[in-house]
Amino acid sequence: TMAVSHEKIYDYFFPFLKESGKKYRKTSLVKAKLAEPGQEVITKTSDGVEIKCKATKGDLLIENQTSTGEVYLMKGDKFEKRYQMKQALDKGWAVYQSNFPIEAIQLETKHLTDLGIDSEFEFETPWQDTMKALIGDFIVLSSDDSGFYRIAQKEFLETYKEV
After folding, report:
1. Which of 11, 43, 67, 129 is the most buried (most CB within 10 A)?
2. pLDDT level of residue 126 (50, 70, 90 thresholds)
3. pLDDT tens by residue, 55-67
4. DSSP label at 59?
């Protein structure tokens, strides 16, 4: 798997997204609770392990309501801006609805050709983790325009709708 710098991904996808990207909204609900600092979280999608990271104080552990049920971490302040609580559950969990649109572009063969990549590749996320990307996945611009991350195609189509 080829490694691509975040700078290269950003320089390529930013103008592309501004020109032909689409806005999406997460329509499925999520479950979330405060994560334990130091807790290791392994995000798995339908195509395997996507990312591994450790929780820090104030992070939320989020579980998508998809067939894979992938879990991931998000900083508390970012979560508060993006989600509204719908229902409290037991053991610290609650159900939330996203109120936050995203901009994304689906990864096509021509993008890989332009970037000089054969098939799948890995790149650094805005939060300094390495993430793989495959043709058909969605490349998403972070809300503050600081960079891009990937959402696997199957999970994206289960949770997002075009606005």
Report:
1. 43
2. confident
3. 999 999 999 999 9
4. -
Of 41, 16, 24, nearest in space to 112 by CA: 16
- Contact, 143 vs 149, CB < 8 A? no
Is residue 156 a contact partner of residue 139, using CB atoms and an 8 Å limit? no
Stretch (H or E) spanning 33? strand 30-34
Query: Which are the contacts of 163, defined by CB distance < 8 A and separation ≥ 6?
Result: 22, 23, 24, 25, 101
If one counts every other C-beta atom within 10 angstroms of the C-beta of residue 131, the result is 20
- Please give the full DSSP string across 1-24, using - where no structure is assigned: -EEE-HHHHHHHHHHHHHHH-EEE
Distance, CA of 24 to CA of 111 (rounded, Å): 20
Give me 152's structure tokens: 């696997």
